[in-house]
Amino acid sequence: MRLRYKLLLINLLAMFLAALVGAAAISWWAWEGIRDQAEVDAMTRARVVADNAAAGLLFHDPKAVTETLGALQIDKRVLYVAVFDEQGKSFVQRGNAMSVGMSAEPLQSERVILAGDFLEVWMPIRIEQQPIGMLLVREDVHTLRQRVISLVGTVLMGMLLAAMLGGLIIYYLLPRLLAPLSKLSGLMQHLSRRGDYSHRAEICAHDEVGELAESFNQMIQQIEDNNRALSEELRQRREMEIKLDRLAHYDNVTQLTNRHYFEHRLRGLLQDIEERQAGIALLFLDLDNFKRVNDTYGHHVGDVLLRSVADRMRSVIRIEDEISRLGGDEFAVLLTEVGGRDEIGRVAQKFLEVLSHPVRIEGHDILVGISIGSVLLPEDTTEFGNALRFADVAMYDAKHRGKNNHQEFRQALLADQGQRLKLEGELRQALDEAELEVYYQPIYILGETHTLVGAEALVRWRHPERGLLLPDEFIPLAEENGLIVPLGEWVLRTACHEAMVWRAEFGHPLFVSVNLSPRQLSDVHVLARIRVALKESGLDPALLDLELTESILTNQSSESILILRQIAEMGVQLVLDDFGTGYSSLAYLKHFPIAKLKIDRSFVTELPDNLDDKSICDAVIGLGRSLAVVVLAEGVETQEQVDMLSGMGCQQAQGDFFSHPVPADEFRQLVLLPTLR
C-alpha cells in the first residue's frame, strides 16, 4: 500500500475515532445536563405542591390535598403522586400506585432518586419548619432519554459528516503535501536502479520534508564522494596489482619474463611432458664479458645493451616460445615444440648470428658474444631440477670452449663438472700447501750477442696425482671462482723476491715480468698489493713489468685507467701483451702509459714464410718505434725468426729458441751461461 493511502487511512481512522469520542463526550454531557435540569424542575414542582398541600394535610382535608395534587398531574411525565402523613401512611394518592414505604428519614430531608425509567422526588411537607408529612412524585424519564438519544444521534451524525469532509479534504490535499516525498522516492528508485548519484533532490520548502531532502542530498553527496574515493582506491589497487604482477613475473630492465615466471612455466610443461608429441628445448644463454661493459661504460650502458640483446633474441623465437632473463647477463629460452637437436642447433645459431653485430650505444660500438647450453626434454631428463642443472652445465662447457658458441648437454659433462669442482677444491688446497711453483722464461735483447735482461714469471702447479700442470689447465678456473686474486698476489710477491735474489747473486739487475689478470685489476686492493710486494722484497719498481692483455685495456672504465696510471707513477713498467689480437681501435694506446708492446706468438710462429704475419710484425715494430716503447716478440723458436725480427728492429724476444720456462734454480744457471750468439 502506498504512503498516500496509508496516511489517508490513518487520518480517517483518527477522525472517526475523534468523532466517536466526541459524540460520547457530548452525549454524556447532554445526559448529565438534561438529568440535572429534570431533577431541578421536579424538585421545584414538588416543593410548590408540598407547600400548597401543607394546609390540607394539617387539617386532614383530603379534598384540598387532592386538588393541589391535580396541578402536578397536568404534566404527562408525572405517573404517580402521593402524600403521606406524619406516620408514613398514605393520605392522598393519584396515579398508578406502587409499593412505597415510608420511614422517619424521608421526613427530615428531600431527595431525588433516578431508578430505571422513573424519577422519584421525596419532598417533606412542613408547617413552620416542622415536618408533618411527605410528598412523593414519580415521573417518567423515557421522554428524557429520547431527547438525549436524539441529541446524541444528531451530534454523532454531524461529527461523522465532519470526519468524512475532513477525509475528502485530506484525500485531495495529500498528493500536494506528499509531492516532495514522491519526488524523493522516485529519485531514490532511480539511484537504486541506475546507480547514478549525480542527481539531487529539489528542496521545495523549509519544513521537515525540506530538511529530509537536504539530508538526502548530503547523504547522496557523501555516497558519491565515497564511491569516487573507492573507485580511485580500486584503480590504484588494480594498478598496484598489475605492478606487483610485473614485478613478480617480469624483468624491469628488458621487460622479459623473469626467473620466477620461467620456472613456473617450465614446471607446467614438465607435468605432461610424456604425453607431448614433440619435445621441449631449454637453452641457457650467458653474455660473454658483460662485466667489462659495465665496468668500462657504466651500468646504464649495460642496461641499454641488455635491452638490445633481448630485442634481438625476441626476433629469433616464435610467439609460442618463451624467453626470460634469469638475472645479470643470464637468459633462458623455452622452445615448446622442437623436432630434435638439429632444430635446437639452428635456433642457437640464429642467436649467435643476431648477436654477432656490434651494438652502438652512446657513440660506442660494443660487441658481445654469447655462450649457449641446451637440453632436450624429455630425452635428457624429465625432472625440473635436472633440466636447469644440465642446461647450466652445457652453457659452462660453451664458456670453457672459448665462449660465443653453443654446446648441447652430454652426460659426460656431469663427470667433467665433478672433475672441475674437485679441481677447484684442490686448487684452494694447493694455495695453502705450497703446491704452486713459479717458472721463469728468459727474455733477451736481440742483437749480435742476445743479452739476457729479464724473465717472465709463469706459474705451475705440481699436482700430487696429476703431476706438473700448465696454466691453461687451472688459470681459467681460478679466473671464474676468484682464486686468481690470491694466486696472482702470490706469484707477484714470489717473483719480486726472486728478482732481488738475482740482483744479490749476480750483481746486476734483471727485470721480472708478471701477468696481471682482469680480475686482479678489478680488485680494489690491487695498488696496495703491488706496493706491499715491492716493499717486502725491496725490488726497484723499474725492474717490475706487469703484463696486461689488449682486451683488458679496451674494456676498462675511467677508474681502471686511473689505477693503471698510478701503477706507472710507482715506476712499474706496463706491458701490453698479445698485441694485435684485439678488435678495437688503437686510439686507446694514447690513454695508457704503456712501456712495452709484446707481439703475440700467433704472428711469429709462421715467420718468415707468412708474408701477412711479416707485415703485421713490421707494423707493430714501427708503431712501437713511433710511440717510443720497447717491442718484444714472444714465441720465437728458430734462428730465422730471430734474424728477421732483429732486422725489423724488434728489441727483445723470448721463446723456446732461447729457453722454455724453467724453475728458479735452472734460470740461475742460464744467467751464468755465456752470452748467446
Strand order within the widest sheet? 14-15-17-18-19-20-21-22
Rg to the nearest angstrom? 65 Å
The number of strands is: 22
- The secondary-structure class comes to alpha/beta
Shape: rod-shaped
Strand content: 15-25%
Contiguous low-pLDDT stretches (5 residues minimum) are 99-105
Question: Helical region count?
Answer: 19
Question: How much is the average pLDDT?
Answer: 82
Largest sheet, if any? 8 strands, mixed, barrel
Proportion of helical residues: 40-55%
N-to-C CA distance? 130 Å
Structural commentary:
The chain is an alpha/beta fold. It is 52% helix and 21% strand. The chain is built from 19 helices and 22 strands. The strands form 4 sheets. It has an 8-stranded mixed beta barrel with strand order 14-15-17-18-19-20-21-22, surrounded by 4 helices. Strands 6-8-9-7-12-13 form a 6-stranded mixed beta sheet, sandwiched between helices. A 5-stranded antiparallel beta sheet has the order 2-1-5-4-3. The longest helix has 56 residues, at 3-58. The protein is rod-shaped. The two termini are 130 Å apart.
Ordered list of secondary-structure elements with their pairings:
Layout: H1 3-58, H2 62-73, E1 78-84, E2 90-95, E3 111-115, E4 118-127, E5 130-140, H3 142-194, H4 208-249, E6 257-258, H5 259-271, E7 279-288, H6 290-297, H7 299-314, E8 322-327, E9 330-338, H8 341-354, E10 359-361, E11 364-366, E12 369-377, H9 384-400, E13 406-408, H10 411-432, E14 436-445, E15 451-463, E16 467-469, H11 475-481, H12 484-506, E17 511-515, H13 518-522, H14 526-537, E18 544-549, H15 550-554, H16 558-569, E19 573-579, E20 594-599, H17 611-627, E21 630-633, H18 639-648, E22 652-653, H19 664-672
Parallel strand pairs: 6-8, 12-13, 15-17, 17-18, 18-19, 19-20, 20-21, 21-22
Antiparallel strand pairs: 1-2, 1-5, 3-4, 4-5, 7-9, 7-12, 8-9, 10-11, 14-15, 14-22, 15-16
